[in-house]
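Anyone up for a design puzzle?
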């Protein structure tokens, strides 16, 4: 008996652990009011781990707006479960204390709350395939990314530490910081927006207080891109203030006029 919508692929015994690989179809949500699962303790634990992992992945997918994603769950059940008796009550599941949700390695404390019950920690390592932005051709450093330079391909992102892009608009128009090979997944750190303010450039300083907006001329003390904080010298008062780059040659002051 297996979790609805889940197809078991392989079962291995490795170093005292049982590894069950499953391909997850449309995500299911755990039902806390469900009756106790039937079968051996191993199957009960396996089903509970699948339910919990599938629900966690589904929640993250909703938060990140993943479209058309697929996942495969690799469930590691310790061999000691062979000594456990089936639980007569619904199992409880929780993440170990201090653990944070990490899709590269999900861990669950699964407990049988019945008399003479048991508790065990199960690890689930999912492979999650999401359409992400990849380079259609080799992109050289310094070039701007155009619509024809990229395409969407499904890649396993569960262990991605450098990030990825799921919207082509997040790449188009940005500048390549480091050469990107064709078919390589594009990560945010490989791209940067264009400079809107250059060091020594005269800029428009916008200050707003109590609904009143004032504009003055200043000189940028460093380069800046959209959203960057830069130091700007007010050419009238000769005072240096902190401002946020807002547009081409435009900054917005963080302090009211007259403050240093």
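Challenge accepted. My sequence:
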């Amino acid at each position: 008996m297996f979790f609805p919508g889940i197809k078991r692929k392989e079962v291995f015994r490795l170093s005292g652990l049982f590894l069950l690989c499953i391909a997850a179809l449309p995500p299911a949500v755990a039902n806390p009011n469900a009756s106790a699962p039937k079968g051996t303790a191993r199957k009960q634990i396996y089903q509970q781990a699948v339910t919990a992992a599938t629900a966690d992945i589904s929640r993250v997918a909703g938060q990140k707006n993943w479209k058309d994603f697929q996942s495969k769950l690799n469930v590691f059940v310790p061999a000691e479960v062979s000594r456990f008796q089936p639980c007569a009550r619904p199992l409880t599941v929780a993440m170990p204390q201090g653990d944070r949700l990490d899709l590269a390695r999900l861990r669950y404390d699964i407990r049988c709350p019945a008399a003479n019950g048991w508790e065990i920690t199960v690890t689930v390592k999912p492979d999650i395939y999401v359409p992400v932005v990849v380079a259609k051709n080799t992109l050289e450093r310094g070039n701007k990314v155009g619509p024809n330079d990229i395409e969407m391909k499904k890649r396993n992102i569960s262990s991605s530490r450098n990030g990825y892009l799921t919207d082509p608009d997040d790449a188009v128009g940005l500048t390549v910081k480091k050469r990107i090979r064709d078919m390589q997944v594009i990560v945010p750190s490989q791209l940067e927006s264009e400079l809107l303010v250059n060091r020594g450039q005269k800029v428009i300083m916008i200050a707003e207080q109590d609904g009143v907006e004032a504009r003055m001329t200043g000189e940028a003390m460093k380069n800046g891109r959209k959203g960057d904080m830069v130091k700007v010298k007010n050419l009238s008062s000769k005072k240096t203030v902190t401002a946020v780059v807002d547009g081409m040659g435009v900054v917005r002051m963080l302090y009211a006029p007259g403050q240093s």
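A detail worth pointing out: The chain has three domains: 6-127, 130-192, 195-253.
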